[in-house]
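Backbone shape codes:
===
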Amino acid sequence: MFSARDARVGGGMVAIYRTNRLLNLLLSDRARALFTHVALYLHFRGAEPGQPGLTAGAMKDLCAQLRLCSRGRCEALLILMRAGGLLTAAPDPDRRKRLLAPTEKLLALHRARWGLHFEAMQGLVPQAADYLAAIRSDPAFTEAFAIALGRRFVAGLRVLDNAPDLEPFAERNAGFVILFSLALSGNMSDGFPPAAPVQLSINALARNFAVSRKHVLSLLREAEARQLLMRSGTAHNEVSLLPRGRNALETMFATMYLYLAQCADEALGARSGGAEPSVLTATAV
């Protein structure tokens, strides 16, 4: 069942989105979220024998392998991230590579995002409070957690494999934050997302998330075609999330919490020398 827990995650993701307008313009929601995760994964694995670390070449190769973006787009994004203070040049002991490293600004952004999820998981996952404390205070946990997330993703795990109806939102700029914004528009008594119709302003959505009205309309029409939502009202100024859309969101959240719990358990285990399985580890989504 949906709860205020999931609403807090949705609201937090909307707020974080608004702090990254330059990256938002260049990547879909899926690629934007994953690009920086890939960068952290390469950086932290750089200490392992035979690993390249975070270099422009390694980033291009992995982004091409994962089909996140083209090699040219990857290079442009790396330049943008350096200009925005998210990445910086790092010394290489043998001077053969031009290493990059995440700045505290980028790490803080990820700790805030992961902290949102861990806060939401409290009451659902027994160790969530431990995850939250660790992400706030222990750099070793952050490193191990980033590696665990990246390793599973490179191996093929995709959160939306269990909720493929939500792909249109993931593959568009501002797709998910538009969906979350609509789902957060109802009264608290209606739950998350609200069962009752909510007001829809295409102009407001376009303005709030720096996309065109045409972009918002196209997204809504595709979602209607998939029977995820329905516009209503005399001027199509209301929208309702249909059961299919609500079920897809619920599955996505459940899969995401499972993924994060497994990786966080692994990260805790890396600190203590042995991981204790989360209550969600063996749960089928």
